[in-house]
Hints:
Layout: E1 35-38, H1 42-53, E2 62-69, E3 77-83, E4 92-94, E5 98-109, E6 112-115, E7 119-122, E8 131-143, E9 148-152, H2 157-176
Parallel strand pairs: 1-9
Antiparallel strand pairs: 2-3, 3-8, 4-9, 5-6, 5-7, 5-8
Helix pairs in contact: 1-2
Amino acid sequence: xxxxxxxxxxxxxxxxxxxxxxxxxxxxxxxxxxxxxxxxxxxxxxxxxxxxxxxxxxxxxxxxxxxxxxxxxxxxxxxxxxxxxxxxxxxxxxxxxxxxxxxxxxxxxxxxxxxxxxxxxxxxxxxxxxxxxxxxxxxxxxxxxxxxxxxxxxxxxxxxxxxxxxxxxxxxxxxxxxxxxxxx
Length: 184
């Protein structure tokens, strides 16, 4: 009779999970449509338009690599994210819990500055924003889901202006930022 802790049995009605290896330099292949977008009201659309008018394009101020995603929607996922120096995120929430673990640089969330080795737990549906430090911030994003939403909410005109100003003043610098903080 197998030991209940030997990993070779699964409770009735559940699938058997296996250990899986992954490598940072070879992310999962295929289309990884993991995040639906919600909360796109007139104010959010206008805010993104303002940022785009100042040079915002996907991937300029941030880069992400999906390192791991369980086969099950309710499984675990791990993403490595790099926000470049001084970049700001719009206030938003997600439909899943998340842990950010800082692996390089620093970020400000509210009145708190998080540095290498620090982390934050963000519960599902909790709105937050993040401002990358002067050298940017690189983090690991652990989630308790492989598919979740991003819901934009509570961004006033002043916050959208800060985001647009970042693109207006830093876009050229961001194009030259090629090495993330953890590799410097």
